[in-house]
Amino acid sequence: MKLCFALAIASTLFGLASLGIAASAGPRFYGDPPDQHHPWAIHDGNRPQPKVVTPGTFSTPDQAGKPPSDAIVLFDGTDLSKWQNDKGGPAPWLVKDGYMQVVPGTGEIRTKDQFGDCQLHIEWAAPAKVEGDSQGRANSGIFLMGRVEIQVLDSYHNITYADGHAGAVYEVNPPAANALRPPGEFQVYDIVFRRPIYRDGKAVDPGYVTVFVNGVLAQDHTMLEGGTGHMTRSRIGPIGDKGPLSLQDHGNPMRFRNIWYRELPLRATDGGTDGYLTPEATLAKRHQIAASIREDAAKLANSPNPLPEMLRLLESLVYEKDEPTLQKASTMADQYVANLKQLPADQLSGKKDEARQVRDAFNYLTKFKILPADFAPKAILAEIIKDQGWDRRRQP
Ligand code: MG
User: Fold this and answer.
1) How many domains does the chain have?
2) Å from CA of 153 to ligand 1 middle
3) Considering the domain boundaries, does residue 2 fall inside one?
């Protein structure tokens, strides 16, 4: 008997997983239900679990850290196989002692990978020997999608125009702080990039970039104004969905190490189905969730205990009204309370927890008007629970 039960649970869990619906991670019928902008309920047990990532390690001055487990590594200190020059030929920069170094005059290098939205980690060092000033001192740049420059510059005790400092979105926005280490030491950039999204030539999302320099916030969700250039004001404009990451040769022997990125979940404006959605996207997602739960309920049909199927059907109604489902679940609920009523006292007493759970489900569904307030099985069940004194607290 126990084995059968375990198998039933296992197959249910498997069914849910294969439908992309998370196995129960919390009580059902609990927090506020979905609304027109949110496809999930509050504390929704069906909401998919976050993916598990093994974190990496932080870098030390001498040693690059380890990337997180889902990072796509662009440079691990050994070779430039993931990079090319701007003509598609081999990347001509120097690789030595775990870093790459600009060979002045050879031009920018770019990744063979093309990508858009990302979490990017990159470390760089200016030459220890200070030469030049302002924009002439240890200049390079990190070009997201080959277009948006996050400035790389030895800004340590170096005055230049504010929107050209290290950590600036070049010519658009200065860094909120100058948190550079002295030249010769590696600086750490952590960047969250959300590309502009265009539809039918119109920006539906201008795109944003967040930058931490050595762990200090430099760009706080800064709105993009298109690709950045030099001297001319950037204008918002389509820049595509993907592009390479490129590193600038500005004539200085800059070093880079430990370069990796992670792909980001889709934004709601990009077809993502989590977060604050449009009413249309919410409706579509709620339909998908409800359909998955109904499919799951169908797999539970004709089992000796009809309760899990009934609860699953009721649960699907939280996401989407569906008349046949409502009819079927109502019939099952009628039968459930009728059976309960007929049970002899010795068998009924074992149903206390189950009945209260079903009662809580009925209460939730009527509270949020998913079931009518006069849903008959609710009143019958409440009466049974009252008669049995199942809600009474134990006398101290
Ligand atoms: Mg630059």
Assistant:
1) 2
2) 7
3) no
Residue 56 lies in a domain: no
pLDDT of res. 29: 86
pTM of the full structure: 0.87
- Residue-range definition of the domain harbouring residue 15: 9-50+273-388
Judgement on whether residues 263 and 281 belong to the same structural domain of the protein: no
- Is the same domain home to 235 and 378? no
**327 shares its domain with 215:** no
Q: What is the C-alpha to C-alpha distance for residues 381 and 389, in angstroms, rounded to an integer?
A: 12
Residues 70, 75, 78, 84: is their CA dihedral positive or negative? positive
Q: How far is the CA of 248 from the centre of ligand 1 (A)?
A: 6
What is the CA angle 211-251-91, rounded to 5?
80
More confident of the two residues 19 and 97: 97
In a domain, 64, yes or no: no
Residue 291 CA to residue 301 CA, distance in Å, equals 15
Q: Please state, rounded to an integer, the average pLDDT across all residues of the chain.
A: 91
Would you say residue 16 has pLDDT above 70?
A: no
**Ligand 1 center to residue 293 CA distance, Å?**
53
Cα distances (angstroms) measured from residue 153 to each of 231, 328, 390:
17, 68, 71
Ligand 1 mean position, distance from CA 352 (Å): 70
* pLDDT interval class at 26 (50, 70, 90): low
| Ligand 1 centroid from CA 73, angstroms | 23
**How confident is residue 396, by pLDDT bands cut at 50, 70 and 90?**
low
CA of 168 to the centre of ligand 1 (A): 10
CA-CA distances (angstroms) from residue 227 to 118, 234, 238, 280, 283?
16, 6, 9, 31, 35
Asked if 31 and 41 count as a contact pair (C-beta separation under 8 A), the reply is: yes
Same domain, 229 and 117: yes
Q: What is the pLDDT of residues 140-165, one digit of tens each?
A: 999 999 999 999 999 999 999 999 99
Neighbours of ion ligand 1 (CB under 5 A): 139, 141
pLDDT tens digits, residue range 102-149? Answer: 999 999 999 999 999 999 999 999 999 999 999 999 999 999 999 999
Q: 61 CA to middle of ligand 1, Å?
A: 23
